[in-house]
Amino acid sequence: MSQIIGTAVSRTDGRAKVTGTATYGAEHPLPGLVHGYLITAQIAHGRILNIDTAAIERSPGVIAVFTHDNMPRVFTPANDWASAQIYETRLPLADDRVHYAGQIIGLVVADTFERARDAAHSAPVEYQTDSVLVEADNATYEDSPPWFGEDFQFQEGAFETGDFAAARAGAATAVEATYTTEAELNSPMEPHALVAHWQTNDAVTIYEPTQWVRLSQGTYAQLFGLPTERVRIVSPYVGGAFGAKAFPWPHGILCVAAARELQRPLKVVVSRRQMTANTGHRSQTAQTVRLATDETGQLIALEHTARTCTSPVEVFSEPCTAVTPVMYATPNLKLGQELAVLNVGTPTFMRAPGEAPGMFALESAMDELAWELGLDPVELRLRNETSAHQRRKRPFSAKNFAACLRTGAEQFGWGQRQMQPRSQQRDNLLVGWGMAAATFPGYRGSAEAKVRLLPDETAHVLTSANDMGTGSYTVIAMTAAETLGLPVESIQVEIGDSLMPDGGLAGGSQMTATLAPAVVNACQAVLEAANAETAQQAFASLQASGRASYEATGSAAPGEEGTQFAFQSWGAHFCEVMVDEEIARLRITRWVSVMDVGRVVNTKAATSQIRGGIIMGIGSALMEECHFDAASGHPVVYDLATYHCPAHADIPRIEVTFVGEPDLNFNPLGVRGAGEIGIMGVAPAVANAVYHATGKRIRNLPIIPDKLI
């Protein structure tokens, strides 16, 4: 068997993407296609008194207008995270109420996109307005309900071991601080868009980017009262998602409902401005961390409380405290989470939901504690690491956190760091070095794959799994190639179609860990079906027999390992910043990251995933923020010109190293995910470096220039 897993392989789908032959959700030119454009609310709270649909229908090219007065019937799905799930439990156009600015209040269908857009923008709407609340500081908070995280387990916000108050009272050293982050927008390259095509009144094909093909299929089936097999989801390529394309949003439900009513293929594309309200964001957070140690710097008490905000139409808690029990050992741990309702669009999953802002607070506080103790921040973390998940009471499997810290410190030259703020300069600029830890849970679900051997000596792998830009096509091809003993070029991968075996969810950094074992089992099954030990023997048998193919399906699922171990990936970031105080200019000039993600299938793709997470984390640290106008409730930023994300010039060369060994307790290949751990700890590493450079402790993200003046 050739050694393919663990090498660097270029994306097998790369040529299709750069030449434009990869087909995304809005790129299906069906005969008779018509175009829909959303009408969105201009107020943030109140009700609709009247929408002059007659005036809209007189606009050129308009075919139909849908509002709450004539919304086609849809059914309420189970919303059980197993058979069906939607992002907003309030169905689209359910009534005349407006809960947030930009909420969908209608849909115009016309013969061209431009005509639909023009009619929607000029739609006459009368409102009755109510008072608006979009400022988190003025909200009323209550204990957060249990959240349903990416591990698909409900978790309470409140948790306590020991006696935090007593331990803190007797501590030798203590720090306490509150850290805040602003709302961040999911901004994938591909906007949310779909084409709905009803072949008959009880059979529909939906071309829509989704992270979970089979759950989307089941959800639309329940929404429209259909057997699951009468709904087909097609999603071979997803142009980025970050958590916001896992389930149907109201625009998708509305599009499918309108297409059924019209019996015409219908395309709806959500504009960038509309996406700020209608396709999710990361909630703003306010977190307080209290740390206490004995004389040796050993943590004896840790408290982490968080406040986040949700929408009037859905409960979503940003689970900031979920990361805390896995990081540092303490006999007295106290967690708490509160939630408030604002007149804003529904928040949702965004790369490392909860964990990323939670890690900003925790790792910033750990840095403050290290300075208070006069202790190296790396040594403080080594001294306090935990061998077990303190909430689940299970030991970690294949943990190499200490190796991440030590290797990163050596590669970065951390030992040469001056131990006083403002002590390092270069070219008349202040230089700061900062570091922070990283971790993300190891998740794994159930999946199936079909492998087909053909007489032309190629193998085809079919599964409904998808690729949202993370490299699933290539990982599947590499796994099949190694198992079958074939070159990667001989593997053809077909994914993203609900007609194929269930490929599971692309979310929670679990696609590779979920799908790769299923592909291995399917490859072994097809060799068994061919009564062959190698693919070459199977091809020879196939050609001699005159058969069209050998094929077999394999599956894989978690076993009892989750009751014995806790699974996490680990890492450490080290960065250098340079600050020009005269003009408040901050630049990141050097970055080193070391990661333990179990077995690395494709070193090229995994390195890119870590770098992508780091770049996104730098955006969170330095520029990403979405504020809402207190009077109108509308986002102040509303497109990629006003919502700032990092560009190439903002990012230094990022050195990534992997350490550790395959986590064979987790799955047979020993692989864990690499999609989200890269963003973990990035923002605090930057903030900690800024403190070292300037002596200013910035506890409020993003670190924009006015905070440095």
Structure description:
The protein is of the alpha+beta class. The chain folds into three domains: about 120 residues, Aldehyde Oxidoreductase, domain 4; about 180 residues, Aldehyde Oxidoreductase, domain 4 (2-Layer Sandwich); about 350 residues, 2-Layer Sandwich (Aldehyde Oxidoreductase, domain 4), CATH 3.30.365.10. The chain is about 25% helix and about 25% strand. It contains 16 helices and 31 strands. Strands 3-5-1-16-13-14-15 form a seven-stranded mixed beta sheet, sandwiched between helices. Strand 29 and strand 30 form a beta hairpin. Helix 9 runs parallel beside helix 16, helix 12 packs parallel to helix 13 and helix 15 packs across helix 16. The longest helix is centred in the C-terminal third of the chain and has 20 residues. The chain is globular. The protein starts with 13 loop residues before the first helix and ends in a 15-residue tail after the last helix. About 55% of the residues are buried. The mean pLDDT is about 95.
Please outline the major beta sheet: 7 strands, mixed
Quick one: overall form?
globular
The termini sit apart by 60 Å
- What is the strand content? 25-35%
> How many H/I helices?
16
- Low-pLDDT runs of 5+ residues are none
Fraction of residues in helix: 10-25%
Number of strands: 31
Q: What is the CATH topology classification name of the largest domain?
A: Aldehyde Oxidoreductase, domain 4
